[in-house]
């Protein structure tokens, strides 16, 4: 096991937390918001653990001031959140919903008033259902509607928001949502997956290119999730390489190299048109990397892409979700990104965290030492990558609050803050206090 490395992150390093609209906001039928694909997916029996939905979630829509006060108490520099597309355009396009954008006006103003910088993510998986009925991300036209939405939000909030994120984890929305059927919209099609991959890439490129023409002095970037399969001793390297070329590199190679990986290119070629890569490769100012666990895969000639994901061995440490805890793979993944791209923009760790079984003690405290240990060891992994030359400029914990965890409902808890879903009472956990002290010490070093 690697020894912890010195963690001198410097005074300019940014500390934050991340959330997503559908996971915390609730209020799905208020102020003109239209239905999203997740609203519809949650209504389908058996799709979400315990039949949970995001209808109420953490009620952040009404309690955002309380939540921002917790962020201030935590001492974070940045709050990364997402905008719900169906709040802005209830049918995905057409007339802007003023009540919807007004919520984000209040949210941004409150964040700034508390000395916290807002980082706005345009798309964290909640596509308007009306656009899904037109094909969603399998329909190339969605890229144009996305661009219109991006411009509308930037016009309203761009005078106060300096960082815009085009997409969060397009691999998850394409692969889990269009191939495995585990996420909304619940499709199970190789063709749907491949078309969604390209159209998500194209949407990010079109949206970013359009923002560049608006004259705003914004930092523009996007976020990918990474957990590279080869970074484990004894891995099936050929299967792992294929896995990563199909799932991870297709969202960075087009952006940073101007083409798809060799394994993907012939599969996706029918969706690519002349000029697409010029849009997709538009330079970004930063790249967000989300990391939770490394994948394990084996070759499988019967599988659609020639590999199969397998669970980690019983003996390795895991989170409550069965995700392998392997901080060394975090460092290895960050180094692999650096080594693959000669011109790599600055990186931010835009999500990192873990779900554990939290126990509320008789005095109301939550002593989540496992989460603290997870964060501590992964920060050491970030420091190791920085010491090896990876330009990492910030770290954002997932997540500020316990929240709706997609297909797992409310069962997993990732938050630094415990949420009693019956009463909506917020209680900072021990990990909250640890992160608070760590950030304070890091800023003073």
Helices and strands in order:
Blueprint (H helix, E strand, L loop, with lengths): L13 E5 L2 H4 L12 H6 L17 H15 L3 E5 L2 H4 L9 H16 L3 E5 L7 H4 L8 H17 L5 E6 L1 H9 L11 H23 L6 E7 L11 H11 L5 H4 L8 H4 L7 H5 L5 E5 L6 E3 L7 E3 L17 H14 L6 E5 L17 H19 L4 E7 L18 E4 L4 E4 L1 H15 L1
Parallel strand pairs: 1-2, 1-10, 2-3, 3-4, 4-5, 5-6, 6-9, 9-10
Antiparallel strand pairs: 7-8, 11-12
Can you offer a commentary on this structure?
The chain is of the alpha/beta class and 445 residues long. The chain has a single domain (14-444), classed as Glycosidases (TIM Barrel), CATH 3.20.20.80. 38% of the residues lie in helices and 13% in strands. The strands form 3 sheets. The protein has an 8-stranded parallel β-barrel, surrounded by 4 helices. A two-stranded antiparallel ribbon has the order 7-8. Mean pLDDT is 96; it is low at 1-6.
What's a quick, concise take on this entry?
With 445 residues, this protein is of the alpha/beta class.
Largest sheet: 8 strands, parallel, barrel
- How many helical elements? 16
State the total count of DSSP E strands.
Answer: 12
Q: How much helix is in the residues? A: 25-40%
Provide the domain count: 1
Order of helices and strands: EHHHEHHEHHEHHEHHHHEEEHEHEEEH
Oligomer: single chain
- Uncertain regions spanning at least 5 consecutive residues: 1-6
Overall spatial form: globular
Query: What radius of gyration results from the CA coordinates?
Result: 20 Å
CATH topology: TIM Barrel
End-to-end CA span: 27 Å
* Beta-strand share of residues: 5-15%
Lateral strand order in the biggest sheet: 1-2-3-4-5-6-9-10
Give the mean pLDDT: 96
Structural class: alpha/beta
Q: CATH class, anyone? A: Alpha Beta
CATH superfamily: Glycosidases
